[in-house]
């Protein structure tokens, strides 16, 4: 809900925003560049 990244991805792929947010939070438990990817998408996804 910070930048609308998960909601934008959910809209793009026809999913519910809650599902995408939940998947993102669960993916943060795994090692990887999730936060960097989130910031990059925050910059790249156009605002409404």
What does this structure look like?
With 48 residues, the protein is mainly α. The chain has one domain. The chain has three helices and no strands. It is globular.
Amount of beta strand:
under 5%
Number of helices: 3
Please provide the count of β strands: 0
How far is it from the N-terminal to the C-terminal residue, by CA?
Answer: 15 Å
Number of domains: 1
Query: Can you summarize the main beta sheet?
Result: none
Give me the Rg, rounded.
Answer: 10 Å
Bin the helical content.
55-70%
The sequence of SSEs as H and E is HHH
Shape type: globular
The secondary structure category is mainly alpha
Average pLDDT over all residues: 89
State the low-pLDDT regions, or none. Answer: none
Task: Show the helix and strand layout.
Elements: H1 5-13, H2 17-27, H3 34-44
Helix pairs in contact: 1-2
Short description:
This protein is mostly helical and 48 residues long.
Question: What tags apply to this protein structure?
Answer:
globular; single chain; mainly alpha; 48 residues; 3 helices
């Amino acid at each position: 809900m910070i930048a609308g990244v998960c909601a934008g991805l959910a809209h793009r792929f026809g999913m519910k925003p809650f599902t995408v947010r939940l998947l993102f939070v669960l993916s943060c438990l795994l090692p990887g560049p999730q936060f960097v990817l989130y910031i990059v998408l925050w910059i790249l996804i156009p605002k409404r």
